[in-house]
Amino acid sequence: MNVEYLIRGLEMFERLRRLGPTSFQIILYMLQKGPYNDVSPSEISEKLNISSDSARKNIERLCKAGFLIRREKGSYILNLGVLLSAILISMRYKKIRNFIKKSKKQNKILKN
Fold this sequence. Notes:
Layout: H1 3-18, H2 21-33, H3 41-48, H4 52-65, E1 68-70, E2 76-78, H5 80-91, H6 93-111
Antiparallel strand pairs: 1-2
Helix pairs in contact: 1-5, 1-6, 3-4
């Protein structure tokens, strides 16, 4: 199993856990609309009844965290690979974390 992939998945899971309620609402709205349908900040603002400034800031955070992809100017889609990776890792969080710790210990022993 590729440990680097699991580490990246854990990082994405941690980012997902730290998202605020508005960011979660945006992700849920985009999933319901259809993950490959473009969404604009103005649409998010209107549909979620939030300010356009809040919509833009949350979309920018989601892009920086890797959960959204900017397509055209003012157009965004979900990054399903990253989102699904974080969700799947969350289902086995403790086992994966322990596996990574063991792998790191084994690598240190091998290097010495």
